[in-house]
Amino acid sequence: MTRIKRGYIARRRRTKIRLFASSFRGAHSRLTRTITQQKIRALFSAYRDRGRQKRDFRRLWITRINAVIRGKGIYYNYNRLIHNLYKRQLLLNRKILAQIAILNRNCLYMISNEILK
Amino acid sequence: MASMTLSFCSSLAAHCRICPKQCSSPTLSFSNNTNLSFLSVSSPKLSFSSSSPTYRLLPKSSESGAAVLDSVADPPEPEAVEIVETSAEEVSKREEVFAVVMVGSRQYIVFPGRFIYTQRLKGADVNDKIILNKVLLVGTRTSTYIGKPVVTDAAVHAVVEEQGKDSKVIVFKYKKKKNYRRKIGHRQPNTRIRITGITGYQDYPAVTLDS
């Protein structure tokens, strides 16, 4: 076998990884072996949390809708609103309802009055 | 309505990507919305059923172009005041309405003059006029038209601006201590649509706060 010196092959690979982790804190952006580990953890967390993101946002919307609706009156809360929504065959989803609750609260009150009737 | 839309811009939970119109409209100055993109789990394949957004190809109208030219070409003459006023009136008339429309099995709040990113609409070229039929709610300053489930005869007119792709996400699958890692890059195709107008909701029974 011919003799091969390793040269800059490993360095090139590691600079790409270092660029990815360049904004990490402390040793996680400075030490090579730690950088490779942290990059793996970061990418894997992103993958897992993209699935979580969908769940988290739905929880947030439900909480917000609940908060706004409970101000309407006693014995009126999120679950009754959703039940009435489905009974009246409205198709608005929680994301839109939460945004309407923030943007234009009167609109949400109009919707809830309409489906209560 | 302008103040409400400004507060909407600053709220973090505003989850649909509605970005303000980039053209120079002298009365509007919305900051750009940097919201998280809501990655839909549904496949990008558009099913051409009756509930999907139907679009018809119409010749490109220069009506919106003329309005922009009026506001941009602002000569220092007494005529300038009239032009600015009419464009301000048009703008304030436009700003009052919003609609909730369902495109690609996702729902968006839509304002005329703004754009939204939707799933890739197959067969729609750039500068195609599109009519979105599945309008779930139309709101004006004083009243709302709540669809059960759809506001009949309401239509949202839009123009396809660009058929591009989302920014790349790296899908990295990893199992620890088992020597398993897979790295895949993914760019979801999308379509940018600029909303030109909301029509056809006037005949529907309106709901106001007093009733």
From TrEMBL, chain A:
Q: Which InterPro entries match?
A: Ribosomal_bL20, RIBOSOMAL_L20_CS, Ribosomal_protein_bL20_C
**Family according to the record:** Belongs to the bacterial ribosomal protein bL20 family.
Q: What is this protein called?
A: Large ribosomal subunit protein bL20c
Q: Which organism is it from?
A: Corylus fargesii
Instruction: Extract the GO molecular function terms from the UniProt entry.
Output: rRNA binding; structural constituent of ribosome
**What Gene Ontology cellular-component terms does the record carry?**
chloroplast; ribonucleoprotein complex; ribosome
Keyword annotations of the record: Chloroplast, Plastid, Ribonucleoprotein, Ribosomal protein, RNA-binding, rRNA-binding
The UniProt record lists the keyword Ribonucleoprotein = yes
Decide whether keyword rRNA-binding is in the record. Answer: yes
